[in-house]
Amino acid sequence: MSVKFYNENAVDFFENTVDADMGETYKIFNSYLKKGDTILDLGCGSGRDSHYFSNYGYEVISADYSDEMVKMAGDYLNKEVIKLDMRQMDFKQKFDGIWACASILHIKKDEMAKVLEKSHKALKDGGIMYMSFKYGEGEVQRGGRHFSNYTEDTFSKLLDSLDIFSVEKFWKTADVRPDRGDEFWLNVIVKKK
C-alpha cells in the first residue's frame, strides 16, 4: 500500500487533486444511478468526489486509509470520513455504487481479487462500481507509491476469473491534471452479478 506517501504528502496531494475536473467521468457514473442512492467513495483522497456526489444528491460514505487524508477530507467536507483499509472492508449489501477513483490501483495484484470480492459483498444486488488504473501492464513502484496497472484485456481476465461482476463499460482517458497530459488511465464500470 501507499499510505505512508499520503500521510507524508497530504497537503500537496490535496492541492494538486481537489480541483481536477472529473466532470465527464461523473456523467458516465451518474447514468447508472439515481439521486438518493447510497455510494461509497473508496479511497476518497481530498474529498473532491464526495463533495460533488453529496451536492448531486447521493448519500455518500467517504473512506480513506491515510490518517492525514481522512483529516483533510473531513475538514473539506465538514463531515466524518472513515479510516478504512479496503482489504479489510466488511460492508454487506449497503451501497448502490462504489467509486474507487485512482485508489484501488494501489492494491497489489495478488490482493486485488480480495478487494473486488469485498466490494462485491458491499454492493446491493445490481450495484455498480467505478475504478480507474494507470493504463499499462505489471506493477510499479513510483515516488513512494505502488501501482497495479491494467489494460482492458488484463482486467477482463481478472474479472473472468472471479465471475462476480459483468463489465458495463471500459474507456481510456488522458490524465485531467494539466502537467500529466502524457499519462493515460483505464476506466471501468462493473455491475454486480
UniProtKB/TrEMBL annotation:
Keyword tags: Methyltransferase, Transferase
The organism's place on the tree of life at top rank: Bacteria
Keyword match Methyltransferase: yes
Cross-referenced Gene3D superfamilies: Vaccinia Virus protein VP39
Transferase keyword on record: yes
SUPFAM superfamilies (UniProt xref): S-adenosyl-L-methionine-dependent methyltransferases
GO MF annotation, one: methyltransferase activity
Organism: Psychrilyobacter piezotolerans
Ranges of residues in domain Methyltransferase: 39-127
GO biological process, one term: methylation
Protein name per UniProt: Methyltransferase domain-containing protein
